[in-house]
C-alpha cells in the first residue's frame, strides 16, 4: 500500500499539465479579461471621436472595378466546377473520417474559411471561381461570350429573400445538425445546393441570381468590396462598401443574419448558453438533444443583433432631425457591419483552421488513403502543440482580439463616411451616427468576452 501511494505521488509530480481545449482557453481565462474588454471598447469609442472631430478622415467611394473578361471568368468557373465535382465524388467514396476526407476539409476549411478570408484582402474572387457561370455558358452555348438574356425575369418581390432562406438553411446545417462533417451527408447537401442554385442561374441568369438570391455570392461580394486590394487598385479598407447601393429590407436582414449566425456559433458552446438551456457544460450530451434550443438560439441572437441595429439607426435618425428615408439609411449603414463580420469570421475560425489546414494538406497528399504521396511530404503529422502552450495560446488570442477591434474601428469609419454623405452639418452627423457607434462599442465588448468565456470547445 505504501509503495502504491509513493507511485501515485510520483506520477502526480512528474505528469505534465493536460489541456482539454485545443484553443488554449485555459490560458485565456487567466488574462485580465475585464481590462481587455474595456481597452477594446475604448479603442472603438476613440476611433468614433477621431472621425467625428476630423471630417477629413471620411472615406470617399472608389470607382467600381471593370468586370472580368467573360472568357477568363467562365474558364475559371469551369475549373472550379470540375474540382468541386471531384471533391463530391470523394465525399461518397473516400474515407469516412472527416479529417481524412477531402470534401469536409474543402468545404469547411478551404472554402468557408480560407477562400472566404481572401475576399476582404483581394476583392470578389468568387465572381470568377464560382461553379455556376462557366457551366451555364456551356449549356446555353455562350462559352467565351457575355451572358445572354435569361428565360425568366427575376421577380422584384423576391429581392434578397431567397438568400436569407438558403443562408439560414446553411447555418442550421452547420451549427445545429448533428453531423455536418459526415462526408456522405455533406456531399448530398452540397449537391442539393448546387442543383437549386444552378436551376436559378439557368432560369434567371447569373447576374440576377448570384447578385441577389445566392447567399454566398452576395456575402462574398460584400466582403470583397471591403478589400484594400483589388482590380481597381489600392484603397482604404472598407472604402469599397461606400460604392454599393442601399439594400432593401431583405438585404439588411441578410447581412444581419450572416453576422448573427457567426456570433451564435461562438456563443453556443459557452457555459452561459448551455446553462441557460438546462445543459451541464461538464457533461455535454452532444448536438442532438440541443437541436431545438440551438435553432431558437440562432433566431434569438440574430434577432437581438437586428433589434440593436434598427433601434440605434432609428434613434440617430430621430435625433438628427429625420434626414432622408429611414429605410434607405438602414440599407446604407448596414454595410458598416461587414468589416465586423469579417473580423468575427477570422477570430472565430482562426484556432480551428490552423489545425484543419494541416489535415487538408495531408488529405490532398493522399486523397483515398492508399499511402500515396502526391505532394511529396511523406508521412507528416498534424501539429497541435502550439495551441497548448502559454505563448501559442496568447499569440492566437492577441490575433483574435486585434482583429475584432480593428474590424469594429473600420466599421465605425465606414458608418461615419456614409453619414457624411448625407450632407448634414457636423453636429447632425454626430447625432446620426452616435447611437450606432455606441451599439458597436457594446458589440465589441461582447465579442471580446466571447473569446475568453469558458466553453466546451
Features:
457 residues; 65% helix; disordered N terminus; mainly alpha
Describe this structure in words.
This protein is mainly alpha-helical and 457 residues long. The chain has two domains: 18-62 and 238-457, no CATH class; 70-234, no CATH class. It is 65% helix and 0% strand. Helix 4 runs antiparallel to helix 9 and helix 5 crosses helix 16. The longest helix has 31 residues, at 390-420. Residues 1-29 have low confidence and may be disordered.
Summarize the structure.
The chain is built from 18 helices and no strands. It is mostly helical and 457 residues long.
Shape descriptor reads globular
Give the proportion of residues in helices: 55-70%
Query: pLDDT average, as an integer?
Result: 87
Give the distance, in angstroms, between the N- and C-terminal Cα atoms.
39 Å
Lay out the secondary structure.
Elements: H1 2-14, H2 25-28, H3 33-53, H4 70-93, H5 102-122, H6 126-129, H7 133-140, H8 161-175, H9 183-204, H10 206-213, H11 215-225, H12 249-267, H13 271-276, H14 291-319, H15 326-333, H16 338-365, H17 390-420, H18 426-452
Helix pairs in contact: 3-17, 3-18, 4-5, 4-7, 4-9, 5-11, 5-16, 8-12, 9-10, 10-11, 12-14, 12-16, 14-15, 14-18, 16-17, 17-18
Amino acid at each position: 500500500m505504501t509503495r502504491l501511494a509513493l507511485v501515485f505521488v510520483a506520477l502526480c509530480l512528474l505528469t505534465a499539465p493536460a489541456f482539454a481545449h485545443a484553443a488554449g482557453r485555459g490560458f485565456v481565462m487567466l488574462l485580465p479579461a475585464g481590462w481587455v474588454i474595456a481597452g477594446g471598447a475604448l479603442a472603438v469609442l476613440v476611433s468614433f471621436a477621431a472621425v467625428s472631430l476630423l471630417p477629413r478622415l471620411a472615406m470617399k467611394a472608389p470607382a467600381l472595378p471593370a468586370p472580368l473578361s467573360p472568357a477568363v471568368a467562365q474558364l475559371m468557373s469551369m475549373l472550379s466546377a470540375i474540382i468541386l465535382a471531384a471533391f463530391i465524388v470523394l465525399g461518397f467514396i473516400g474515407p469516412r473520417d472527416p479529417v481524412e476526407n477531402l470534401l469536409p476539409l474543402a468545404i469547411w476549411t478551404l472554402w468557408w474559411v480560407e477562400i472566404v478570408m481572401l475576399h476582404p484582402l483581394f476583392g470578389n474572387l468568387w465572381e470568377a471561381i464560382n461553379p455556376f457561370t462557366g457551366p451555364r455558358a456551356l449549356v446555353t452555348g455562350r462559352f467565351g461570350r457575355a451572358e445572354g438574356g435569361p428565360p425568366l425575369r427575376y421577380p422584384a418581390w423576391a429581392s434578397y429573400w431567397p438568400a436569407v432562406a438558403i443562408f439560414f438553411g446553411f447555418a442550421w446545417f452547420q451549427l445545429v445538425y448533428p453531423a455536418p462533417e459526415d462526408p456522405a451527408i455533406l456531399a448530398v447537401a452540397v449537391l442539393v445546393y448546387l442543383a437549386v442554385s444552378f436551376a436559378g442561374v439557368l432560369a434567371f441568369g447569373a447576374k440576377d441570381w448570384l447578385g441577389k438570391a445566392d447567399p454566398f455570392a452576395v456575402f462574398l461580394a460584400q466582403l470583397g468590396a471591403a478589400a484594400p486590394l483589388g482590380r481597381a487598385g489600392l484603397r482604404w479598407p472598407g472604402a469599397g462598401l461606400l460604392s454599393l447601393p442601399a439594400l432593401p429590407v431583405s438585404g439588411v436582414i441578410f447581412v444581419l443574419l450572416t453576422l448573427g449566425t457567426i456570433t451564435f456559433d461562438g456563443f453556443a458552446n459557452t457555459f452561459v448558453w448551455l446553462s441557460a438551456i438546462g445543459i451541464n457544460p461538464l457533461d455535454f450530451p452532444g448536438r442532438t438533444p440541443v437541436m431545438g434550443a440551438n435553432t431558437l438560439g440562432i433566431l434569438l441572437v440574430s434577432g437581438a443583433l437586428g433589434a440593436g441595429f434598427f433601434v440605434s439607426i432609428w434613434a440617430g435618425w430621430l435625433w438628427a432631425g429625420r434626414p432622408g428615408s429611414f429605410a434607405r439609411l438602414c440599407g446604407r449603414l448596414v454595410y458598416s457591419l461587414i468589416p465586423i463580420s469579417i473580423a468575427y469570421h477570422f477570430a472565430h475560425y482562426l484556432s480551428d483552421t490552423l489545425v484543419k489546414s494541416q489535415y487538408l494538406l495531408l488529405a490532398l497528399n493522399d486523397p483515398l488513403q492508399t499511402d500515396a504521396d502526391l505532394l511529396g511530404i511523406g508521412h507528416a503529422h498534424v501539429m497541435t502543440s502550439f495551441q497548448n502552450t502559454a505563448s501559442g495560446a496568447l499569440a492566437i488570442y492577441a490575433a483574435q482580439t486585434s482583429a475584432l477591434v480593428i474590424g469594429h474601428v473600420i466599421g465605425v469609419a465606414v458608418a461615419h463616411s456614409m453619414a457624411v454623405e448625407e450632407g448634414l452639418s457636423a453636429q447632425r452627423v454626430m447625432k446620426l451616427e452616435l447611437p450606432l457607434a455606441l451599439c458597436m462599442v457594446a458589440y465589441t465588448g461582447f465579442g471580446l468576452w466571447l473569446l475568453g468565456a469558458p466553453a466546451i470547445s
